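re: ur question from yesterday

yeah so i grabbed the chain u mentioned. its 185 aa long if i counted rite. heres the sequnce exactly as i have it in my notes:
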Amino acid sequence: MLGVLGLQGDVIEHVSMFKMLKEDVKIVKTGDDIKNIKGLIIPGGESTTIGKLIVKNKIDKAIKGAEPYIFGTCAGAILLAKKIVNSEQFSLNLMDIEIERNAYGRQRESFEVYLDIPKLGIKNFKAIFIRAPIITKVNKGEVLAEYKTPVLVRQEKYLACTFHPELTRDTRIHEYFVRMVKNED
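ran it thru and got these structure tokens back, copy pasting raw so excuse formatting
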């Protein structure tokens, strides 16, 4: 079963992507909801708020116990990082990357670009960056896509991207995550 962290952010958009792929999906709001979840998405939203709610709802402990595959988008990528530049906010400390919050600027500096992701066989993926973080350093893992800096990174069971694939109708990155969870990639 796949799950989408349902505390704040682009929850419904990720659920819709999994439904388009005909995958069973559950909205996760508590630590108990992690049971039987093999793959979890931590969506974009407000990373400080999501982090506080993860701790309050004991989801951090449940994640450490269950060890699901995790895909973090935008705020979710921040919450996966071992180091958040210039911030003391909560992190799950799962990916050995360094990330800087809101590094592209304010809402008005949001933008879209088309990315090629050769390692995934993806061409022309519309990447939507909204108050996006920047991955400043990848200590472990593989950079799958770049736009000036790494924007899609995988480290073993974890996938982080600094843009919002859930805001498109393009399921290719979600398909990749499903293949990860099913150990097909």
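noticed a couple things. The chain has a mean pLDDT of 94. also The chain has one domain: 2-181.
anyway ttyl
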